[in-house]
Write a structure and sequence with these properties.
mainly alpha; two-stranded antiparallel sheet; 5 helices
């Protein structure tokens, strides 16, 4: 069974990476500098949900990797573990097609 925490963290990592304008190689370089050389571009792709087996991600995030990822983004681990719904800038709802520079959330089409 997959980990809902790893699923959420993988989604947050993708949001933050894109909001910084980084590709996976750039984030991997930052993770190496943070002391986690195993977080290669391929490992990050898997962590973000790139490969699935029975609709579950094949790569879970470890606590040590969570700390390194938070450091690479200049954020706290809590920023990777909890939803950005309380963002002071977009309040968790950036406009469609835009990414909030504060929390990294990507605006989605409204279902209204």
């Amino acid at each position: 069974m997959g980990s809902p925490v790893s699923d959420f963290v993988g989604d947050r990592v993708r949001q933050l990476r894109k909001s910084h304008g980084w590709n996976m190689e750039e984030l991997a370089d930052r993770c190496v500098r943070a002391g986690r050389p195993e977080l290669t571009a391929n490992a990050l792709w898997l962590l973000e949900g790139g490969r699935r087996k029975d609709d579950e991600r094949t790569r879970q995030v470890t606590v040590d990797e969570l700390v390194a990822l938070a450091g690479a983004f200049g954020r706290s681990t809590e920023d990777l573990l909890f939803a950005p719904d309380d963002c002071r800038r977009c309040h968790g709802e950036p406009p469609y097609g835009f990414t909030c520079n504060t929390c990294g959330k990507i605006g989605e089409a409204s279902s209204r």
